[in-house]
Amino acid sequence: TPTTLQARAADSGANATAAFRKKQRTLEVPQERVDAIATEAIEALHEVIRKHRLTYEEYDVLKSWLIQVGEDGEWPLLLDVWFEHVVEDVNTDHRQGNKGSIEGPYYVPDSPEQGSHGTIPMRDDEPGEALTFQGQVRTTDGSALPHAKVELWHADAGGYYSQYAPGLPEWNLRGTFTTDDEGRFEIHSIIPAPYQIPTDGACGKLIAAAGWHAWRPAHMHLKVSAPDHELLTAQLYFPGDPHNEDDIATSVKPELMLDPRPAADGQGKVVDYDFVIDPV
Ligand code: MBD
Ligand code: FE
């Protein structure tokens, strides 16, 4: 593959931490709410310590591991893998439109605009099977949403994300599409590989020590938005991936499974997928 440089946890972690700092803002949370959430989170951990009678040696190892999570820049990864799916769940369970999924640590806003029918930025020799991803964006009453924004980002055929792994063009496999007058879009890309959480960082150490696996199934990330509508953040998955059933980030839903078919011209796959988004 064109990516010969070695991706390291400390690099992708540092990039994810730096990217998150850019979006970070402050928020006024009522004191009673801070008190309730912090007290209950602390008490939930007390319960675990009591139940398993944590030793002092284990307590010290836990401390150094937490320090390591920060040094590796892996707080965005850790939080998005093990906690974001619950935040996503409680914040979208009122919706009537499409199911969504977590954003994850590798979104970058303002990717290049490619129109309604176009190709996502990629290398001339981009490895991977070609994929045409097409569909329509509608509001919950069924009417089409022209000029809706469809942002797409995904890993390459080696499982690497541009701006987080070395050696990739800045906007590789990241693009912003705008639906046409009938709310339709047609995007040319490639099918991404499954993603393995870096094994050489703090999260990887926990995964190995616990005997878990480090995989997410192959997925495409999307953000679909239109004026006066709730932002839909989603991921879409490919049938047959062995990790659709045991995603480490617990972010697969049956509604998010694609059904690709061979392209008529024999070049890769085609898949239709429509988005229904909720008015605010
Ligand atoms: C990913 O690509 C991802 O989508 C998530 C949620 C966590 C780690 C890597
Ligand atoms: Fe991802």
Q: Show unreliable segments.
A: none
Structural class: alpha/beta
Estimated helix fraction? 25-40%
| Secondary-structure element pattern, one letter each | HHHHHEEEEEEHEEEEEE
Q: Which ligands are bound?
A: 3-methylcatechol, fe (iii) ion
The largest pleated sheet is described as: 6 strands, mixed
Q: Report the strand count.
A: 12
Average pLDDT confidence is 95
Q: What's the alpha carbon Rg, rounded to whole Å? A: 20 Å
How many helices? The count is 6
- How far apart, in Å, are the first and last alpha carbons? 44 Å
Oligomer: single chain
Content of β-strand: 15-25%
3D shape: globular
Please characterize this protein's 3D structure.
By secondary structure, this protein is an alpha/beta fold. The protein is built from six helices and twelve strands. The protein has helices at residues 9-23, 31-52, 56-71, 75-82, 84-92, 202-210, and strands at residues 117-119, 130-139, 149-154, 174-178, 184-190, 195-196, 215-216, 219-225, 232-237, 261-262, 269-272, 275-277. Strands 1, 2, 5, 10, 11 and 12 form a six-stranded mixed β-sheet that branches. A four-stranded antiparallel β-sheet has the order 4-3-8-9, with no helix packed on it. The chain is globular. Fe (iii) ion is lined by residues 104, 106, 195, 219, 221. 3-methylcatechol is lined by residues 77, 80-81, 102, 104-106, 195, 197, 216, 249.
